[in-house]
Amino acid sequence: MVRPNEPGPHPLALVNHGAPRAGSDRRKMTPWDMLPQAKEFARRGWIAVVVMRRGYGDSGGDFAEDAHACGRDPDFHRSGVESANDLRAAIEYLSKLPEVDPTRIISVGRSAGGFATVALTAKPPAGLVAGISFAGGRGSPAKDEVCNPADLINAFRDFGKKSRIPMLWVYAKNDHFFSPQIAAEFYRVFTAGGGKVQFVSADSFGADGHGLFSMAGIPIWTPMVDDFLQSQNLVLPKTLLAPPEPSSSQLPGMEPSSQLSEPARAEFQQFPTFPMHRAFAISPNGQFSIAFRSQSKRCPPIGHRALREARRKERTLQTTYCGRSDPNQPADHQLAADETSFFSSSSPCAVASIRSTISPQRRPWGVLFSST
What we know:
The protein is α/β, with parallel strands linked by helices.
């Protein structure tokens, strides 16, 4: 949960995840991966809650949304309904919290989470006023492949017959899960049944536009969200909330590297607001990457994957700042960033969600938040 630092109650933004292509990866997922997205909604005056559906991460219950997408008898409709049931249960609980305004709720999802949001609007809970789907869909087993696409399109058609909640759909032109052609079919059949959608065909993003709703995509997707919220009279504060001022005790004895540009230095100042298991890597020419996630026994392979991504951007990592969780160890420390010393230390340094950029100009984060 990420809250604005202003008197409440506040409207609720339920943020929900996609589904990995490999089922074995479902339990490796964590809500921390979507913390940057949640912060952006908190900056806009919403209480943002990242919810993990059954069978993902540490959530209880069995995985209930298997569409049998590539089988002989796929059931995308049932899969969407089961996913939406989890969102509905989360909304029912959260609506009772004193800090939540239960009359203004939006659901925001990416990929399978976007599909879940579409299904939720077909049987909306009390208070649901809008839905946002980034690259919504299910059943892509490999790049540029969708199993039983006609059945998936029919599921969108069925949901569109009952959905009357205003929605924003965003698909990038280089989405390698759901192509512009099939996304257009989703839109056509959904709206033909009466569904209400503002459809945005976003420019290509990175190697696969399916990842647009991410930390790296914030400068691109936030204006789309702002325009949609304004069209629904859901703009809350007139200006985005100001960023917090991290305490010097959060990074004892650490100063940003001299190679960092001013925008990158601003990002470094926000580094303490990331989850405790975090890393900030800096290359000799000023490139940097931020990595974070919750503690996990799986952190070494995840960390290696993140490091490989950073090395792809810049072959030599010069400095790594790494957050520890052991209360008997210093909260933060500086390590030489060769692979051996970084990952053979006792630090969990669990990193799953990596962002690598070349010191871009970016709007500063503006949420003063607490997370639970």
